[in-house]
Fold each of these.
Amino acid sequence: MDAQEELKCPVCVEPFTDPVCLPCGHNFCQTCIRVVWNMDDPKASREGPLFCPECQILLPSDLKLEINSDLQRKVQDVFSKAPSLEGSSHRSRSIIMCDQCIGKTEVAVKSCLTCDASLCSAHTLLHQQREALRGHSLIEVTEDLISFKCKEHGEELKLFCQEDQTTVCCLCIALGAHKNHQAVTLQKACSEFKKVLETNKSLLLQRKHLAESAMKDLEPLFSEVSENAKAYRLRIVEKYNKIKAQIEEDQKLMLAILETEEFYTKKWLRWRNESLECHVKDINAALRSSQSLLEEENDILFLQHLKNNRHGSQVELPLLSVIEQEYSTSDKMKTVEQLVDNLDEVVFHNTQRLWSSLRAVSLDPETAHPELEVSADKLGVHWSKKPTPERKRKTNISSQYSVQAKERFSSGSHYWEVAVWKKPYWLIGLSYASATRDQDSEHLNGDFNNVFCYIYHGNGKYLVCQDSNEKSLAVSKTIQKLGVLVDIPKGAMSFYDGDTLTLLHSFHVKFSGPVCPIFNPCIDINGQNSQPLSIVHLRNKNIS
């Protein structure tokens, strides 16, 4: 007998509630022993001695029942930690009396589906001993016998229809709605489903191990990013100390870029870590649910809960993206050092740094598709699939998963960067907008059809488009940060690798009105594209 069985009342066969200990040493629920002794029945005679239902020893009639506090605490400790399942065999604490007793009624411990009756210990033993009653189906005592019988024929649910995945009676298979369907016994069905659950459990444990291993691999990367930034920072400072005062402004710019790189790399790593934590939580929840089902001993309840919770088939888990190299030496940091080495030539030709035109672009949540979530700082957007009621009521939201920036450009030159990291799908472009926010109309709200220039990344391939003219790009390395330059006076829009400042593609554009940046993180499938698009802002930039 396990520890939990020792903490169950012999009368109701449930965990003790307000247990009392009799002088003979046997424990019972206070309610159960009072029912056995008819103490709450005003018509019952209470003359004569009491007795223990277990050992039948006689007890004084004036016996006082006192709660066994030590046993009660032990019951609470054990069963509060035990896994539970809503609607499982742990029924309510109501007492069910035997239907077969004549005269003094005993507490029922079993229910017979064949007799439609609840049985006390003595009548349960009679069912087990008599040849004519041995074929009866005995289950844990319950008031709800209807749940164990066919609603159409009133017969016991003894079979499992494999075609409709439900419990049925013999008449359902022979004459009813499940006629000619393939059916197996409940025991065989439960055995097969438990095998599936065991396989699922094994898969879940494997996925959990992979997720936890990936999380451990991420831990040293945070310090590695800091160490890399620190090393590059020291080397850059040394180089700048050798250069004249006229390039101090350039030094401040480069340091701001380094700090920005460190910030956004850590931001991405934090997001990756949080995603893995959520993955582990989902796996743990699935494990708990599977374990609770595996512990269910009643076949009918097991199959009913299995169908209700949709655990009867092979578990479908979102694929876990495990990246061998979560972070590589930053190209942007290398670019900073290379630019410093070539500073004399840059200054001589009076070449302006592209990063000096980096704009602080921010997102406009009001233009976001309902299934997109914009971060609180309005610098990031990702697929959420949790539309808010306010956003769902908007009728002017396009079916495309986009969000616009707050900024509108009608003159000058503007550059911004977006961290795309390892996202397999994303789209970044430019759309037309009205000159002021007050003039914005319904066609502005993330309308993909209003995007006249964009770059699209789809699973390693890059595509640029102006109006309806598409063109594939041959990109030698994965773009982790995309740079966008809009030069309205020159009529040009260009896309850059934001780390190496390599030009990817440039369009000649005849701007017909104010334009604004547009961002599309694309739909998430199986958790593979849930990462956010993050707009890059310079950190601690102090340039006059």
Amino acid sequence: MTSLAPVTTDAPAAGLPRERGGWWHDFVCPTHGTELLHDGIPGPVPPAGGVRCPHGCVVDTDLVRGAWLVLSHQAWARRARVLAHRAARTGDEAARAEAVSLLVGYAEVYAEVAGGGEHERAQDWMLRGRLFHQALTDAIWSVSIGHAVWSLAEADPERAADLQPVLGLLDATAEAARAARARLVADGRFTSNYTAWLNAAGRVCSRAAALVRRSQGATAVGDDEWLAGEHGQLAHALAASTPGGWEWEASTYYHGFVVRAYLLSLRGTDPAELPAEARGRLVAMIDVLAGLATDGGILPSVHDGPSVRPALGLEWTELAALADGFVADAGLDAVAARARDEAAAVHGPGSGQHPGPDGGPDGLEDELRAMPWAGRGDGTGGWFAGPPLVVDRAPRAAVSVDEEVGIVVLRGAGIHAVLDHGPHGAGHGHHDKLSLALYGRETPWQPDPGQVPYGHSAWRAHYASAAAHPVVRVDDEDPAEATGRLVARDERSVTVEVRGDEASWFDGARAVRHVVLGDGYLLDVAHASADRPRRLALGLRPDVPLGVRVDGDVVRTTWRGAEALDGVHAAVAVGPDGAVPVRAAVRPGPGPAVDPQRERAHVDWAAEGTTSATWVSVFQADAAVRGGGADVARVELADDGAEVRVHRADGAVEAHRLPAEMTP
């Protein structure tokens, strides 16, 4: 069990910030695009003179100060929650005293700085909060405050009167959540990911307040409004996700974001007693993450969201603990383990992000996994009032597809590939139509690049662009938003397509991608055509050292990391006057969004003045993990364009017939 770091002030609440927070996405270096360091968090005021950047800058602006205050408020609320969980579980008096002090202190802060209503400095587009710019941020913060009160009041009703000063805060945050949700519903935005957190805040803070009042003889209030009501959490889960379990934006981050809100709001319920459809959908949403992750725990950051961030690591470990309480064999153990390792590697001692000894984990995950006082009393955990659901799952398919959001996951031969062809994803979408991400168990060979904090508009635009993704591009421009379609699939392959017009993708162009799990390799064939001579290019965007060698008509690539990947490539293109050369050009470019200053080799494999181009790639992982088979020596496209032939080093030749959509 991880122990908590001692508080250095005589009165813990003295360390609380006494200013409103801003928008955390402004916590970004304007020069380098990296998230700033969490110096002094949690604490009362930002560092004097400014906040440091990992590359040496010191940034001191009102926006950065406001963002620092968001992170500090959230860290203090999390600390209060961990202390309260621990005090309730163990009877630790010091932990209880500090938790109560922080909660009562926050009641004073909230009344002092947020009593005037909505935040007057929020941007016009925002759903305004009270303590922070955004109502969403208010909700996330208040969920931690509410759970802290819930734990203390439930575990020790006789002393719940100590928490009466917090009732005003709890009532105000629940009412603010209700009002914000009503605005979303009125605007036709019920499916927004905000709604999940507003419902969580309403349910948790209402229940916490009821537990405090019950200790004084009041009757506990019901919370059907927040869970089973018309716009409650269960209705939102069904409305905002596909039958296959994906949150509608198909963003890994926002998918986990809403699932965590759902599970936090379901505290004290029995999973088996939830309505069958909602229960099944929540299991499917957890399964989506398990199915998207590599066996080594890498979660591809499809669409918006950070690829690696210490605070995100804490979210994944919390979600994994909650998921294990909801459904048996949730499948997120590797994700949680990797998140712990990444957080420890990125965030060193004394950073403040992890308010435990020497900057280590603060123990929230441990507490969630050891809460018998709230459950069955048998020492097996108790966030939920009943045991984890036991569900029958079919063996994981080599090729899995969610047709509604257009995400395909292919697993085989030591390669984990993610092919994205569905809707854009609204405000969290990227221009990644027909993007093919490639991972090993532990290695992000060609990952989804993720996203920087939104406050850096230039780098945010880059990481949402086609140029940042391994996709087909036309004339080096960004496409219009587009939705692709599934052409065909079977147990070992998938074919997807996108067509452009004046309002979608590239006008007058189309692209098809056919991916096959071969015998010990992954075959990728991309085909693009245009209604006039144009520049057609396919990008490779590695996050590992990449070697590129041209050998006649064949391009060979070597991808290095914890695991190795080798590629053999060929391409053909034609224009109005016949064959057009296809050239692979290597240039330096930014790596994934965790640090835009980290340089990687970008490859654009392009043909100029062409009306049709086809690129063929065969990828092989290390022989030890791919399951045998001789190395691939070369690959060729048949003269009629209807077949790909894979030539092995031992002389064997394997032919793959291409779909009609790729045939001239």
Amino acid sequence: MESLFTFLVNASAGISLFYIVYWIFLRNETFYNANRWFLFMALISAVLLPLFPLKYQVIIEPENDAAVLKTISDTFKHIPVVSGTEYESQGFNWQQGVLLVYLTGASIFLLRLLTQTFILIHLIIKYRIKSLDGIRIVENEKYGLPFSFFNVVFINPKFHKQENLPEILAHEKVHIRENHWFDLLFIELLTVIFWFNPFIWFFERSMKQNHEYLADKGVISMGHSVARYQALLLNQLMGMQIIGITNNLNFALNTNRLKMMTKTKTSALGRVKLLWALPAVALLLFAFAEPDYKVLSAQKVLSAQNDENPKTMVDFSGQKEITVRGIVLDEKGDPLPGTSVVIKGGTRGTVCDMDGTFKLDVPENASIVLSFVGKKTVVDSYEEITSGNQKGDTFSRKYTMKDAIEMISNSSYDGDFKTSYEGELLPPPPPPPPPPTKEAVPANGKTPPPSRVMPGDEEVFYIIEVMPHFPGGYYARQDYILKMQQKIAQAEGIKGKAKVFFTVNAKGKVTDIKIVEKDNDGAAKGAVMLVSGMPDWTPGKQRGKAVPVKYLLPVVFK
């Protein structure tokens, strides 16, 4: 809905700007064909520029912020589940009201267009098409004024004498030969879409008026008397416009139209005024341009940092090394297979095997960093490493990884809430640890499984080959979060922070919603509403198969 509103507003701004350019610089000039093309191309540009905006690239370095949306392990499986459907909004908001008004107006004008077309088709069927001087005509008794519709001319024999027909047919012949019907059909369709914008109606009038200028010019160029032709037009002065999608002989019949027939032709230099369209196009391109965010890979960031500050990356080449054999356990003493172990400031690392053990060669005076999703990162300095049990050049170490998140279980709520949310823009996800080199492998040479699965449980992954994909990507997800956050905060008066845990299942649906941390019940409810309103994701994949993946999302209501 918001995308539709944005398009309508942007396109309406373009229509208004182009018409102002036409009205100020071009409406009184005699290069009618050039004006016709200006009016037509201006409308096309106003519609297409918002649909295909220019992109400008914005380079973003990945942040090392642990507070971003991230996957977590199966630890939170038994937290009570909160159903998001309890809090889905059932109210009628202002956006729905505006949409209803817009669709009602568009339906009325579409019905008007279809009715007018049906009437003319009915007249063609009723009175049949005849040929006169090579022109297809329909002699009808419904309308007094002559007009053309596509390649058919409608005439009422009761109101037009035989001696007036040559000028009338010559006039309508120009409309048919130059396919003015196409312009009219195009502008009529746009009036259905942009009926609320007064400038689209100004465009329609100017386009029809320019058609009449072209037809008048064509009649005079055929050798017809200007005075006689003007007298014929004046006789039609009291007539009324027939129908929107037709070219009418008396349309815009005023002193200005009569003057334009004899006005001195605009010089070729005067066509330079058409170039005023370029600043309008440039302004719209600038106004509609959208950022194309590009996140630098971890390798490029580290390389750039190394160039600017050599101390960021450490050159360990040529240094004496020691071997570290370690085991990584959780707080319960269970092994943590898949724990990443990397050298701080370097690019070498490994992962723990199925028993939680690892082996890594560490340069002298270097530290190692141990990280596991959902656990606090551990940094072990060279001094601490060398203080452990030693056997030759090999040191044995034991590490316990503590939970990074304190869980709560009181996450059942009552009440009726509207769906929304707002907060500060979350930074891009942190870069993954550097991949282990060929020489850095688990102690037993085996790759650990992604997670352990209890009998009867569905295998849920937290480190997989292809992560789930929010519709539109990372920044579309952030945009959704920001907009929803603001709506919840405003609609419900919610303030505070919460962390919500959920699973994107193998079908891409958000399930298993749980609150793991909250400032207050309002923040917890808002977080549930935010996640439950998410559209379906593209599911994550492991070895080419769609699998469920768990996420933790911190939210802030202001």
Amino acid sequence: MKSKKQKQARRLAAAVLALSLTVSGSAFAEQTGTGSGTTGTSAASTAGNVQRFSDVSPQHWAIKHITKLAAIGIIQGYERAEYRPENSVSQQDVIVMAIRMMGLEKQALENKAETVLPVQVSDYAKPYVAYAFDRGLILTQEEAGDTSSKTAWGSRDATREWVAKLIIRAIGKEDLARQEAASSSMFADAEDMSDWANGYINAAAVLKIVQGFEDNGFHPQGKVTRAQMATFLSRADKELTTRSDRVSIGYVMELTDRKISVLNSQGTTDSYTISTNTVIYNAKDDTRIPLSSIKLTNEVYVVHNQGEALYVELTDDQEQMETYEGTLGQTFLDQMMVSIQQGTQSTLYKLASNVTITDASGRGLSLSSIEPGSILQLKRNMLLKENEISHIIVKQVPLNKTAEGTVLSINLEQKQVTFLEQTSGQKETYSFPVLATVTLPDGTISDLSKLRVGDTVAYTIKSNEAVSITIRKQADVTQSVEGTLESLSNDKKIMTIKKAGGSALGAYFIADNALISIDGLTNASLYDIETGDTLKLDLVNDKVVKVTVTSRSVKQYVFASIVGYDPDRKLLTIEADNGEFGVFRLTDSTAVRIGDATLPVSNFQSMFISNGNNKRKIDLKVSKDKIVQVEMTQYIEGTVAQINSTTNEMTIRTVGGQNLTFKAYASTKVELQNKTNGTLADLKVGDSIRANINLGDQTMISDIVMKKVGVYKVLYTTPSTRQVSVKDENGTLLTFVVDSNDKISNPGKSTNAFEDIQVDEYVKASFNGVTLANVTILNTLRGKVTAVDAALGTITVQDFQGNVQVQPLGSQFTIKLNGTTSAAITSLKPDDRVEVIRDVNDKITIHVATASKRVVSSYMYTVNQLILKPTGNNDKTSYSFFAKAYLHKGNQTVAANAFMENEEVTIYVLDDKIIEIEKP
């Protein structure tokens, strides 16, 4: 028979436990005390409120998970409403929290207080621990064997590996743990794990319940903090088969600012009130979101108490709705039907008796108030058996207006055109009637076939239709035409060709400064084109901007030997380096050059033909049988094919494919981009060089200059010294001097100056050794992608000045996004921010900016940096700006200091700099 003192002790313990539950206000409050569990202030949520802890800020990395568990009633705090997130959690408290998360507290408390346990725990935890043994969450043979610790089993700090095991068992994933036990550990500190732990830790990592640390370690023997424990349980929740009866999961069937109704998996719909205290999160990124982010039929996780929603989590934003869109033709109120015009077809839709009708902002409307001609979006809830429309959104009432903007897209099949409205900066899509008119810039009336993406227009809308469009400025449209040259006007302004594949003729105006390309001929001009040449014409707005001769090329002979010359017929016989002979004709237009001097053709014989066996070496450019240019060989340009620094011999592969071998003097200097006094040993096979030849002995090299062409990003400029500091695509830094404006090319501008080279822009620079030969300022396109056409291979980009450009990508392009490289146009999408440049080979490279939503902390004027508040992912918090960064609130451009503390913005980052900040 038990003593009277023992019975009194049991009654006292039971009373203390009952008192602690009463004080907490909820049977779900965690007991966090070290003894009886009565210490600490309850954090359990009461109706209409979720506990806020004074030491857990809204920016705390675990705020969502702590808030969620507090709403369910699993955790509580200490005095002064503190949660103490960095305190360690004991083994017994882990079990209490897990049992409550599983919704099994009632069953656990049915265990009698006299339960004999194989381990020592606090009285408040006994029924939970006993139930954990009964359920197999913990096993006697695992827990009762360790007697080395002087601390009671229940009060010991829970380790990370022990918690992983308990959680995996709680969610019924023991089989997964057994499978994962055979796999190697995902973490670098596997040797620190207990023999039994690998499978549980791997399983928890696979299910994304636990994560490692920055050193790729798991720290299995490390303590688990209260913040970590809340996070582990919150993440494991999705795998639970039983939950607290405070939790409802299902689809939103009704939503107002005061009520949410949820259809659960049992087919029951329950409603809960919403108040300003209701906390709403997004499961995707653990961020707080407004109620407006949740749509009908979204999947949600709701924690409720006494009919009130305390915590709502958007777990899947996919709407279970069928959507139809069109123009309202007629409303039949007595039959609850509407007639909707979609293209050329009219369709009747049946409406549900409780159909909800709102405008685009969510304000309620009546069915009778909708005007015919309104653009409607009809939604049918696929979760319901009835095939009726449950929601109507009036996207636009009949609209009549005149506006200006830019054409973003044209769909002739669906008879729709999309404009970027100039004043609002918003996209507007309208259908157009068959008889819509288009007025060209010269006043000519035409049709929609003349309308192009990128055109700047004025447009008139009547009853939501674009009835007339006036083109103010046509967009640049590029195309290519091939054919045979028929004639070229005397003033070289008009070119007529016979188009390929037929006998049709085409006449085209030639743009000023049009490029002429003949293979092998540098700086070709229109005077080098001949009737009968097969041409490829590149046109911009039907004007020739580039002519490429495809039927012939100018052949180059480098280092050829003169065999003989007939001055009467002006025939020159040469022997090429490969042993071939050729006879070519000089004409009055042949350029004869020695060094920098150009001589009359009549001087050729006296200057180039020497007596005896000394055969002069010359360079020739030949088109068919005609010599375009002849000059005394002074240098060889090409790539190093072979080099022997011991014998001072070098073989150079010329542009024309010849391999020429020379000897160098011991004193021959090699000038590199970063070194003036180099030697042959500094060169390697494949280097591009210019070797200067000794005119007295043309088999000897006097000096060598390394040639290099690269695309560089400008870091900063120094106008006083005309220095430009740049970096290449590999991050290598370089500084060079632009000593003359004549070395600067600025396409699209009639003048060129040092000031045109601007920070953050790209330049293409050519070097001869350490000397800058020329620098070309590249036209970089930065802006927002508005359309991607994979079929045509084009993207449409609205730049930061509001101009729209259609950019053909061609067959060779590279897209760089988040450290990866792609050649698939489908990796681009509308609203991407991009930077479009051309590399040294004229291949397009598209850099896609990284976008993220951030909260502003401050702007540092002295260093022109924006400071952002820290995130849970330890993202960078300070950013500099691109020189021409686009900073705006809505459509209004603002200065950097206009973004205030705690404002939420979207930043777009390229090369670790902000190129755009967007504040809605």
